[in-house]
RNA sequence: GCCCGGAUGGCGGAAUUGGCAGACGCGACGGAUUCAAAAUCCGUUGUCCGAAAGGGCGUGUGGGUUCAAGUCCCACUCCGGGCACCA
């Protein structure tokens, strides 16, 4: 074995050496334009901070205890390659990494082992940092943050205060400081909606009124209670099956007093501003669907025989997207949990009650009570499984405001309390669900849209003229909608409106390992925020922080309630020192990740969340509509959770003037996942994939035949390959190169350890073309570059530049391989004029070996800030080109011709080609298509 | 059910605006080198017919537009993902 062959051992030496040098020189220290961290690298250009900026980010990881497998760093390598490329093309690049370290797993681990979550979390961070550092990622480590650092969560709490101390001004369409609302009430320019006089209210009532406007507020509302995790969860954290997103525990709906964030106020802007973003359509669609905006109308139906809570005639307000079908409403349904149900339920079945409506009960009261009990016990999963329509009659009739028809009011669980108003007008003629219910319960069906003659289905939801609809008859749907909404407004029975599926964000968790909510409660139980200058509110040290084992009927118990001496605090809000009760909840996992990019910009300042000049520079605040992080790479699983919450917080901060752009992330890319083969034995158990051997057509493990499967790499499938294995067998540069060569960044791809050798071979060949394997001496020489090679070099430079810019690293590598293959074929030393640009081109991909070769070539400065080669346009065009000649679209011959030959010349050359003459055999040429420099196609 | 993606050799994948399908790599096969092997270097490798020259077929399926279709249009199949009694 030659002493200087590029193998794993040499790679290891090169990599660790350069990593130390980079660290010593602060090579990846990115200078801010002002404030803190204005210092750049000691071995980099002096004008970095004056260059155009580029802010590149990965979705920061949760520091898992199991360490990394080779799938994890895929995105990190991509952003690193791109960041390095951009540094070499004149940008000041901000790229660093942090840890999203609060969350349930550390707490679950703590519960199992007794180890404090902080101890465990910090150990995990240390291990992951080590594994990542070994990859040679060019991160500015001065900017690394962990959401669990007190210095970090001080600002998470500060942002909570900003949100708490703001309200949404519907007229202005944006958030404003709560002090401005208070001033409006004080001065009388705004009066409380219920007509009371501000000046006559008690201080406590005034505070309660103000609190009801805040963007962060406490509300008694149905929440997702997850006893298995001991906490309540946000809608986004509950799966369609009614289980917790994390841990798959059952989730129960129940009313509880909890912190909410008014994200719904931002629905329209969260939707509209998607247009500003360079994200994939699929992610935008997921966010649009989650927000679920639909336009329609509210319609009020009076129930003359019932009263509401205030003794007025009961009014059932419904939401409908099809107000044009109002004349076809033959019954109504309210959700079983609807607050009016008790008022609507009568004591006896009225005349005309059909048997099917009573569920066999003696009175409506009995039927309703039984139905409510049954539905409350059914989980969401049951509800979905059984799509058979059920329900009971309440005994009441409502009046259709457009034709005074009395229609029966039912309760049924196909109407959801959580959407619209929790009540519907049922139009079986134009709605499939209502049709099913009407059929089941023997209710009238009236068509109000004329279906086409050949229509033979049930409910008709297509377009057509209105029928059976009084003054609407003959109108098409859109016209009828407008007309009926105008009419409803006129008679005071409704109005056009918009509804969204998005609910306010449930923000409190009854866990220990999270940011304490910086709130105290006064003697009236009104919330007050802890003054900014007193932040952070640190987590108290607890001996017993584990959530208790709980069941469905128990209440959540915040562990912070056990922190003796912490649960109350003496504060002076200007009215003397008083004792206040602390809020005992912590923030959800998502809080820190909502804003961490701002702290990357300025992780140092103690008086501002981020220095404003640096914030504007890095976020692109000079052009706000196009501002935001320039590239954000991460998994698709955050499509609605993190990415929606984060946009919401950012918009609040934007409204309050704390950030300079309306959106946080300009461009988003979802990297694919690395998948791998897994193997199952005949008992159906997964076996260690690394120990399986290929045997003929099949596979064996310890002599036993096993079957091959395929899935996401991980512990459960026993198919993990760790980066540490790859560092040992090949080196970090080979791992980087292989992962980038496997395919496009956004695609899933199968891991094959046996293919890694291909990437190592490329590095070996490059090395061998520049360095003598036995002596370690350079084999590069200042000889002139042969013309063909020079042209190839410049074509390669041109393609690689374009491909790198497009994040198409796999094709970049293919082009570099081709160039290197030419060098391999070259007899004699490699010309310096080729070696130099080759090393520059590979350096974003394989920075360590590139630095080594770069210094061997005699360079004193780092290749990190060397200029990326530029192609000479004159060398991109050949004098002569070989072009195909087609007859009727099939290639029949080739001619060599001057690259700039005009159409006539090309046509003549093609028709003169002996092979073409032979094939045409005198046939009449009807047409000749000539694409200059590309091809000739003869139609004969 | 609705909404997004996707389908190209044995495998991963490449292919500006419609313009030579299969770049580059893995694997496989053959050769050089070697006592032998590893490593390295050179070559072949979509498929069918053919000794060869050459030709037929070929980008999930069926149709269409075009001088020319992996790329555009229509209909469908399968795979992946999201949402789902949302009024």
What does it look like?
Helices cover 32% and strands 19% of the residues. By secondary structure, the chain is an alpha+beta fold. Among the domains are: 185 residues, no CATH class; 206 residues, Isoleucyl-tRNA Synthetase, domain 2 (Alpha-Beta Complex); 123 residues, Isoleucyl-tRNA Synthetase, Domain 1 (Orthogonal Bundle); 62 residues, Roll (Ubiquitin-like (UB roll)). The model has no long low-confidence stretch (mean pLDDT 90). It binds one RNA strand of 87 nucleotides through helix 9, strand 9, strand 13, helix 13 and strand 27.
From the structure above, extract its key features.
6-stranded mixed sheet, Isoleucyl-tRNA Synthetase, Domain 1, globular, 33 strands, 940 residues, Isoleucyl-tRNA Synthetase, domain 2, alpha+beta, RNA-binding, 27 helices, 4-stranded parallel sheet, 32% helix
């Amino acid at each position: 074995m030659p002493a200087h062959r590029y193998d794993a051992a040499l790679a290891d030496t090169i990599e660790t050496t350069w990593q130390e040098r980079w660290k010593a020189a602060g090579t990846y220290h990115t200078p801010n334009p002002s404030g803190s961290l204005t210092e750049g690298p000691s071995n980099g250009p002096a004008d970095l901070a004056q260059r155009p900026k580029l802010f590149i980010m990965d979705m920061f990881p949760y520091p898992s205890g199991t360490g990394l497998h080779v799938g994890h760093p895929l995105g990190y390598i991509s952003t690193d390659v791109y960041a390095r490329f951009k540094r070499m093309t004149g940008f000041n690049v901000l790229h660093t990494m942090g840890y999203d370290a609060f969350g349930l797993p550390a707490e679950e681990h703590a519960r199992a082992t007794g180890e404090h979550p902080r101890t465990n979390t910090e150990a995990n961070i240390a291990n992951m940092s080590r594994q990542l550092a070994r990859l040679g990622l060019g991160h500015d480590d001065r900017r690394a943050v962990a959401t669990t650092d007190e210095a970090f969560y001080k600002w998470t709490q500060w942002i909570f205060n900003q949100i708490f101390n703001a309200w949404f001004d519907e007229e202005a369409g944006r958030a404003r400081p709560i002090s401005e609302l208070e001033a409006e009430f004080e001065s009388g320019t705004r009066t409380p909606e219920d007509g009371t006089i501000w000046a006559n209210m008690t201080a406590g009532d005034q505070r309660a009124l103000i609190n009801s406007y805040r963007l962060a507020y406490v509300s008694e509302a149905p929440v997702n209670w997850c006893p298995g995790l001991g906490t309540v969860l946000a809608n986004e954290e509950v799966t369609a099956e009614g289980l917790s997103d994390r841990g798959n525990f059952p989730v129960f709906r129940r009313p509880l007093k909890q912190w909410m964030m008014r994200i719904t106020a931002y629905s329209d802007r969260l939707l509209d501003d998607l247009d500003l973003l360079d994200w994939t359509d699929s992610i935008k669609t997921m966010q649009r669907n989650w927000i679920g905006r639909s336009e329609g109308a509210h319609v009020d139906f009076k129930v003359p025989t019932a009263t509401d809570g205030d003794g007025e005639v009961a009014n059932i307000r419904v939401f409908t997207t099809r107000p044009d079908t109002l004349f076809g409403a033959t019954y109504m349904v309210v959700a079983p949990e609807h607050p009016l149900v008790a008022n609507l339920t009568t004591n006896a079945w009225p005349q005309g009650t059909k048997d099917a409506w009573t569920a066999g009960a003696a009175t409506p009261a009995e039927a309703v009570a039984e139905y409510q009990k049954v539905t409350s016990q059914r989980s969401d999963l049951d509800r979905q499984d059984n799509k058979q329509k059920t329900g009971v009659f309440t005994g009441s009739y409502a009046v259709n405001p457009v034709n005074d028809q009395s229609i029966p009011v039912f309760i049924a669980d196909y109407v959801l309390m959580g959407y619209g108003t929790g009540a519907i007008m049922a139009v079986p003629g134009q709605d499939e669900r209502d049709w099913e219910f009407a059929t089941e319960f023997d209710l009238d069906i009236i068509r109000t849209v004329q279906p086409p003659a050949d229509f033979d289905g049930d409910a008709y939801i297509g377009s057509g003229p209105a029928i059976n609809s009084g003054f609407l008859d003959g109108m098409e749907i859109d016209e009828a909608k407008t007309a009926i909404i105008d009419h409803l407004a006129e008679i005071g029975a409704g109005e056009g409106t918009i509804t969204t599926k998005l609910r306010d964000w449930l923000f409190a968790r009854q866990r220990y390992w999270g940011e304490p909510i910086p709130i105290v409660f006064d003697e009236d139980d009104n919330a007050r925020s802890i003054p900014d200058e007193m932040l952070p509110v640190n987590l108290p040290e607890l001996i017993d922080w584990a959530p208790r084992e709980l069941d469905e009927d128990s209440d959540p118990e915040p562990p912070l309630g056990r922190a003796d001496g912490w649960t109350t605090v003496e504060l002076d809000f200007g009215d003397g020192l008083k004792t206040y009760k602390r809020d005992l909840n912590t923030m959800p996992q998502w809080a820190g990740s909502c804003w961490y990019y701002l702290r990357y910009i300025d992780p140092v300042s103690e008086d501002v969340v981020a220095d404003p000049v640096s914030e504007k520079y890095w976020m692109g605040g000079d052009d706000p509509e196009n501002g935001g992080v320039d590239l954000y790479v991460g998994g698709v699983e955050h499509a609605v959770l993190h990415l929606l919450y984060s946009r919401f917080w950012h918009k609040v901060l934007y409204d309050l003037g704390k950030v300079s752009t309306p959106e946080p992330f300009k461009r988003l890319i979802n990297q694919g996942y690395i998948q791998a083969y897994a193997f199952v034995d005949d008992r159906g158990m997964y076996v260690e994939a690394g120990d399986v051997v290929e045997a003929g057509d099949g596979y064996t493990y310890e002599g036993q035949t096993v079957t091959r499967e395929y899935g996401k790499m991980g512990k459960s499938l026993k198919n993990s390959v760790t980066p540490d294995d790859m560092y040992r067998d090949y080196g970090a540069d080979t791992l980087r190169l292989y992962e980038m060569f496997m395919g496009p960044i956004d695609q899933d791809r199968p891991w094959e350890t046996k293919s890694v050798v291909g990437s190592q071979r490329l590095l070996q060949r490059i090395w061998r073309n520049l360095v003598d394997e036995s002596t370690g001496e350079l084999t590069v020489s200042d000889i002139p570059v042969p013309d063909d090679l020079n042209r190839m070099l410049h074509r390669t430079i041109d393609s690689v530049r374009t491909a790198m810019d497009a994040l198409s690293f796999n094709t970049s590598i293919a082009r570099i391989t081709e160039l290197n293959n030419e060098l391999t074929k070259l007899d004699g030393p490699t010309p310096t004029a080729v070696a130099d640009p080759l090393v520059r081109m590979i350096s974003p991909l394989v920075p360590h070996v590139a630095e080594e070769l770069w210094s061997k070539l005699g360079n004193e400065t780092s290749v990190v800030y060397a200029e990326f080669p530029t192609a000479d346009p004159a060398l991109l065009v050949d004098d002569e080109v070989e072009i195909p000649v087609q007859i009727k679209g099939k290639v029949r011959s080739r001619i060599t011709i001057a690259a700039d030959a005009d159409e006539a010349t090309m046509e003549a050359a093609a028709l003169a080609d002996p092979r073409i003459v032979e094939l045409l055999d005198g046939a009449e040429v009807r047409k000749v298509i000539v694409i200059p420099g590309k091809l000739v196609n003869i139609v004969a």
